[in-house]
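subagent[fold] <- orchestrator: predict structure for attached chain, return tokens only, no commentary.
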Amino acid sequence: MEIMYIVIPCYNEEEMLPITAKALIQKMDTLIAEQRISPLSKVMFVDDGSKDKTWELIERFHRSCDLFTGVKLSRNKGHQNALLAGLMTAKDYADIIVSMDADLQDDINAIDGFLEKRAEGCEIVYGVRSSRETDTGFKRWTAQTYYKTLEKMGVEITYNHADYRLMSRRAVEALEDFREVNLFLRGIVPMIGFKSDIVTYERAARQAGESKYPLKKMISFAVEGITSLSIKPIRFITGLGITIFFVSLIMLLYFLIIHALGRTVHGWTTTVVSVWALGGLQLLAIGVIGEYIGKIYLETKSRPKFIIDINLEDDEKE
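subagent[fold] -> orchestrator:
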């Protein structure tokens, strides 16, 4: 039997964690009793610099039940870095690792399907939402638009998959070779390759606490995904620039002809529209290029993606 760790990034989840812990105890006990996973399997909470009592709860769970362990980051580094910290820590103790969010919106019973796919030899199993009926119309539309945009940008990504997945230790070790500072795991994990499959599930509503992804963060995350994995936006600007250049040559020829024919019309409209249009295009181009230059700047610094303050697994060994 393989040792399975469930890695859960947490940020200000004191309201949700007791509910999550109770549900996971039942699930883990069932899987262990059915001899589907090793009795050494655990749930690893990763505290991403929470400002509430999240870490106090994690320590309490750890002291009261051997199923729970935890990692505390030195400061808030964001969901993707916290998840990566958990994966890189758990790989030293586990054979397979399941990553999921703390809100229990991902159906924990899908883990059964993960294990079935793992038994068939899969190194990576993606949890995929079967529908988006629980989302608002706006969120459903934006999500579908985003996935289609990523696809057109040439990004390999699993549709309707977030960060609920199973990865073998071998897959996580391969993930460690990706050195990006600008993390977008949903796009990076498919690059690993290896045998993979999907398991569908119904996503539930959050039972307590508030979503940690308001609209502003979702937009930022979307931009991160596109600019971290594709250079097509820059190529689009290049193509647009070439098109405008040829249009300007045609317009120059047109104005020379009407000038020669004495039909020159003196007006401000064309001039003003041209200046504003080209000025806006130039600012847009500079902004997109600047986004990529900013990412290059961060990558060259090679700053650590996370710093672990406390690892309860190490404390246990001591």
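orchestrator: received. Logging for downstream: Residues 273 and 279 are 10 Å apart (CA to CA). The mean pLDDT is 81.
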